Amino acid sequence: MLACKTGYLRAVVSPDVLIEAERNLLSKSTAQAFTRYRNLVDVTPLSLVSAPDQAIVLQYEPIFFEDAHVVAAALAAQAHYLVTLDQRLASRVKHVNLPIVAISPKEFIQTVLPGHPEYPDIRSMNQ
Questions:
Q1: Pairwise CA distance, residues 113 & 116, whole Å
Q2: Three-point CA angle 39, 81, 91, nearest 5°
Q3: What SS3 class is residue 10?
Q4: Which one of 3.30.870, 3.40.50, 3.40.120, 3.40.390 gives the CATH number of domain 2-118?
Q5: 112, CA 20 to 30 Å: which among 1, 4, 57, 80?
Q6: What is the pLDDT of residues 46-56, one digit of tens each?
């Protein structure tokens, strides 16, 4: 999020994903984590994509179940990466021939971000 906040990367998200993240934080985390998340969302320039039509989401349900809307939104946005903490979702995406890479935030930071042309500047933000 910090790399997106400063403009080095562009975060693309659907309203449904934002709502789901809030719901998960409220039910599974602390009030402090929720407040930190909300503060990050408030200061990070996010590209908002419309929630995909239900007919499109239904196409992905047999493979992605409750995460079909996430995959449909990422594909509609023509995202290169689907950064997720959901290991089951990442595994499902990896086993299907889609033009998107599902990756954990840690993997993204360790394997993709170093290839960014402004990586030294991005690293210096965290020091």
A1: 5
A2: 105
A3: coil
A4: 3.40.50
A5: 57
A6: 999 988 899 99
